[in-house]
Amino acid sequence: MVTGEPKEPARRTWFEVHEQAKRVAGGLVSKGLKPGSAVAVLAGAPALIAPTVQAVWLSGGSVTMLHQPTQRTDLAEWAADTLRVLQMIGSELVLLGEPFDALGPVLAEKGIGFHLIGDLLDAEPLAEIVDSPEDELALLQLTSGSTADPKAVKITYGNLHSNIKAMADRAEFDYDNDVMVSWLPTFHDMGMVGFLTVPMTFAVELVKITPVEFLTGPLIWPELISRYRGTVTAAPNFAYAIVGRRLARVDDDDAYDLSTLRLALNGAEPVDEAAVESFTSAGARFKMPPECVLAAYGMAEATLAVSFSPLFTGLWLDVVETEALEAGNKAVPVPEGDPRRGTDDVRSFAILGPPLDRLEAQIVDDEGTVLGERQVGQIRLRGDAVTPGYLTMDGPVDTQDAEGWLSTGDLGYLVNDGMIVICGRAKDVIIMGGRNIYPTDIERAATSVEGVRPGNAVAVRIDAGSRRERFAVVLESKLAGDADIERTLVKEVAARVRDAVDMRPYAVVVLPAGSLPKTPSGKVKRAATAIQYADKIANNAAGNAKG
User: Sign of dihedral through CA atoms 477, 483, 484, 490?
Assistant: First the structure.
């Protein structure tokens, strides 16, 4: 495991990490940690997180990675939110590591117990590993909803083992030669399960930096892939878009060598083909094979991964008729060479492959009737990796029905004998004029306008479920603040959206960069945006009406 890039790179074997973990575990048990205890971890340095997480598991506990405060965070508010999370998961202990060691007094003020990870590294090693049954909790994955109303996905040891094994098998890992490169945060399921637990379990080489290092200089990501001959990586849409733009501006064709990259995974949200195209086009100059793109379907409720597209096929799109999709909930294919391709008469979605081993998927309508191939409905899942439930402030909540099915809240369909296609989240779909309009179509149209920050436009529902249902577009732009430019931007976005979906937005709101509420992994939050900027949306619409 390589950590500390780019300033102080250090490499340790997984055996050395394990030896550290045994000492931390020994310290925890000596201080009274009991099997089955929930332990919260707040640390930024991967070099500390890896042995700490493993130590909790060696001690028979469950891990909750706390959301990290930033420089702009109100620490008193953060501490109050953290206390609510700890009460919800039943934890009385936080393990603190750099750069958050100094938060001890803030926790103490709230009566929250804590240990410094650095102090535990000198403890006597754990004498005997605690045996944990498969149905015991291993991970409590916090969702990215409101911190005032937190929720945690319960992941058992059985869930975790099933999913990491299925991912490693489907990805055809070569344990001796693969090198994983990641900047994803460990408080997110992809960073924690995919790019820490998987390599730690199967002894795969891992180069792990922090999200701060990536956001400070995004080109460190291709630089590390090049330097360490990286073969496997992953990121959400916005990161591929950012790095694609940055790579396109690099003058030296020999600046990077990305020829070793075999899997660049994109999942956890509808795959943005424009972001992927930007990344693969720019990467081609640096010998990156375009077929390395791996479109995936993932969610914390399935531990992490639900499905992977077939390996080494690149981004595989299903192109369908817009009218049949929006008005009839049918995915009618549009063949190659059809003149409608490239127009607003079609929509395209990534084919995300069949479910991983020991998982199965069904598409059902609102009454629970199982639908056939290319019929759009709610996706539900069943299998060994599916969570048994949530922990909430009101107590535990089951997620599975009597037959073990989990309703995901995602809309999609199946093609090619069981391959999954995602259209969007059911709660985000905008219903107007008898049509189901997917917010991603609106957002892609908005971000195609020059001046709109890529990946930073949100389509939000207004008066959802009523006869007056409408939508607004809220976007970020570095041009925000100039009234004349904003007016021009609003008109261009409204026109582009109308061209794309044949519906005009109720309002278009322009915000400065960094204004949109986002999940810990950097995805925009539609519902939170609608609430936070309700007044601006209303005022903007009123201004448009007067104009």
Answer: positive
